[in-house]
Structure prediction request, 292 residues.
Amino acid sequence: MPVRRSIAGIDSPEALAEAMRAAQYIADEGLSTAAYLALALGKPLLLEGAPGVGKTEAAKALSAVLGREMVRLQAYEGLDASAAMYEWNFPRQMLAIRQAGDAYVNLYGDDFLIARPMLLALQRPRERLLLIDEIDRSDHEFEAFLLEFLSDFSLSIPERGTIRASEPPVVVLTSNRTRELHEALRRRCVYHWIGYPDPQLEAQIVMMRASSVARDTAHRVVAAVGKLRAEPLAKPPGVAETVEWAEAATLLNAQGAPWPTAFARAIGVALKDQDDLAFVAPRLDRILQGAA
Prediction:
């Protein structure tokens, strides 16, 4: 497959980072480079990182930049080919047989084929971006099945034959690393690890995503979130929680709650686990020091 220097007018990692910023996503040099190379080489992009660091949002931003519909396949334990690829509309086939009587009916025509995300991506590779979200939630059998798809970008339908994409579709896989992915899957992808953003970048994200939040508030909530992430929590707050916490506290403050009380009252927006809330409660005043 030839290397493409320009994709949808994007001819460098810097240009991609700028376009993603216009799509309300701030990509650092590592992410923009990995994403650009995946597009140029026609390879899937594998994004790993803790929950809430912006992996799915990165896929959404790429979809917006490329002007493609995002087709999302949410992985889960027990995910099988029928949910990921296609299935036949059995009730409609039965109805067609009854209505046809003795006439011939092609039961495997397009009218009876229900395309699922992977097939949808192959059918229109220039118009769609396939997001396979949280691939680590699927079982090993589905991961093995995925290898063929990611190698050849084709699917075999016994009744129809092999369907192959006219060009490699844009595919983004995300993983929260709840388990190790197979090495063969990694080899087929361009890999990038997304960590928590540094405080300066996270404050920029807050101000970009929540226009009602003041600069000082953004920096203070980011500092508090940094302290929360340093605690041994089951579910530390992600970037989305940082943005929402800043918005929620700003709303309460506008209604009369003083700082840092507004942050404390909105803590349920940042932490969403009862054990975490109970653990943090006696430490919250210390964590919020400086958030006034």
